[in-house]
Amino acid sequence: MAEAKKPEAAAEGEEVVPKKKSKLLLIIIIGVLVLVLGGGAAFLLLKKSSADEEAEDGDGPPAKSAKAKKKKDAEAPPVFVKLEPFIVKLQSGEQESYVQTLPELRLLDALVADRVKLLMPEIRHKVLMILAGKKPSDLATPEGLQLLANQIRVSINASLTGDRVNVALEKQDIAEPGSPVQAVFFSSLIVQ
After folding, report:
1. In terms of CB atoms within 10 Å, which of 21, 53, 154, 177 comes out highest?
2. Roughly what angle, to the nearest 10 degrees, separates helices 120-132 and 142-161?
3. Non-local CB neighbours of 84 within 8 Å, separated by 6+ positions
4. pLDDT tens sequence across 30-40
5. Tell me, what's the pLDDT at 36?
6. Half-sphere exposure of 53 (CA within 13 A, CB side)
7. What is the distance, to the nearest Å, from the Cα of residue 44 to the centroid of all Cα atoms in its chain?
């Protein structure tokens, strides 16, 4: 009779049901653990990013926020924007001369890069005007090329900030610390 009860119990599904319930319970527990751990990790990341934002805003102690900003600036890679090539006729008395150049701008940060892209027609116009005012002899020396780079930098900074062009800054090879455009580099420059 004991043997007769076992097939009846198997037929009724008494032994099979607890195994299915235990597997389902295990899957639910694992799912809940994954959600809890994921939520905890997301909370920690959000808490860390909000603490970083507070330090940048200056809400934290001044010494810590200044150090954090310097560290962030030191770790951030430089932002460069390559302008499209320029081909401009130079001012020349004897024969026609042209300059072909590909300037690149080193910017303060990525936000400035977005602003440069928005003002690109104005920036290209100003660079063309500066180049069109040059003579071949102006671009024959390294000092002349550095002056050209400085003039382009100062002109673009004036466009980005809305200020007037400060001619005195054109003689400085280093931009002011808060200037949007820190430097102008020439990837190529050919005078013909």
Report:
1. 154
2. 150
3. 102, 124
4. 888 888 887 77
5. 81
6. 6
7. 25
Residue 189, phi then psi, degrees to nearest 5: -155, 115
- What pTM did the predictor assign? 0.60
| Alpha helices (runs of H) in the chain, residue ranges in sequence order | 2-12, 16-57, 62-75, 110-118, 120-132, 142-161
| Percent of the chain predicted with pLDDT > 70 | 76
Give the span between the Cα atoms of 31 and 155, in whole angstroms: 59
Q: What are phi and psi of 79, to 5 degrees?
A: -105, 125
Residue-wise pLDDT tens digits, 46-70: 776 665 555 555 554 555 555 555 5
Residues 6+ apart with CB under 8 A from 99: 86, 87, 88, 90, 131, 134, 136, 139, 189, 190, 191, 192
Average pLDDT, the chain: 80
Q: Could you give phi then psi for residue 59, rounded to 5 degrees?
A: -70, -30
Distance in angstroms (rounded) separating the CA atoms of residues 10 and 17: 10
As a dihedral over the C-alpha atoms of residue 41, residue 45, residue 46, residue 52, rounded to 10 degrees, the angle is: 160
Which run of H or of E encompasses 180? none
Residue 183: both structure tokens together:
């430097």
DSSP single-letter state for residue 167? G
Q: Any idea which residue has 């977005």 for tokens?
A: 114
**Using an 8 Å Cβ cutoff, are 81 and 105 in contact?**
yes
Q: How far apart are CA 81 and CA 170, in angstroms?
A: 21
